Amino acid sequence: MLAAPAAWAQSGGSGNVAAQIPWAQSPTIVGIVEGGATLIRQTTRHTLAEGVALNEQDIIETAPGAFVQIELPGGTLVGVGESTRLMLRPRVGKGLAPTPIYLLQGWLKTGSGASFSYSSPAYELAAQAASTVAYTAGSQYEVFVESGTARLALRDGGQTVSQLAAGDFAQRREGASPTVARRAPPEFLAKVPRQFRDRLPARGEQFAKRPVAPKPLGEISYADVSAWLRTEPGLRLSLLPLWKSRAAADPAFRAAAKAELPRHPEWEQFADPEGYARRMAEEAERRRAREAARQAARQAARAAAEASGSSTASGKP
User: Fold this and answer.
1) CB neighbour list of residue 51: distance below 8 Å, 6 or more residues apart
2) Pairing assessment for the beta strands 140-154 and 161-164 based on DSSP bridges
3) Residue closest to 211 by CA, chosen among 44, 64, 65, 27
4) pTM of this prediction?
5) How many domains does the chain contain in total?
6) Same domain, residue pair 198 and 124
7) What are the tens digits of pLDDT across the range 133-153?
8) How do 59-62 and 37-41 pair as beta strands?
9) What is the CATH number of the domain that holds 202?
């Protein structure tokens, strides 16, 4: 088995980690950064650094070979492996409580002495006093439960739910049905990021009272966020008000978004305002024409009814 995070290990595998960590109600903190990692906050890219406090809808992206540890309120430790994209507390669906993490792609390790859940394009995982390791890429995933228990629910409409215990390995490969095995295969263990094998220290307490400001790198380009603009509609719609100002301010962003409109049609008004205005005018004209045709049909029907009534009153056949 891989080593569980330090906070989980120190809890003895049971009990409430939050009760053992005095900063449990503090903001989400970046505790460790190894290698290159980027923070996208609203319309600006930043260099991610240890001690940065994270906000809702913050996006973290790691480079090959990089590793980041996030420490959430309640004592949950989240390890982010290389070549990974995730968002903190995305706003998906009106009135729905945001999931703590949305894993778009890549590697994630979670450890908590209480309950913790996150989402991905393919599945939702709800863990209970557990340590889990997962890799996801589109509809494919691999999930290993190191300790504790977890509930894995697929999101593709199949209503497939798996109850996982310590040591279980759930997997779905491209074009294959989901499977659950009693142990992780050697090929999976061999490719797990090396940082996931160590017990990692919880460092949030030392940063909680003096968070670090991330260093800005510049405004986002379309390429910086294109992977997020090709996700599921509910998530894309929540990002539209966040980034639409870039389409207005940056012609290159606007042109790239226009070229990819079939992937995110909700961007038409901002990526192709002239085309959108023209289409709206054409649709309005068609609506007026349809209404005029309905009015003419009603008038013709009334005229025919009146003519029929007149003929009957005069006694004409």
Assistant:
1) 29, 30, 207, 210, 211, 212
2) antiparallel
3) 27
4) 0.82
5) 2
6) yes
7) 999 998 999 999 999 999 999
8) antiparallel
9) 2.60.120.1440
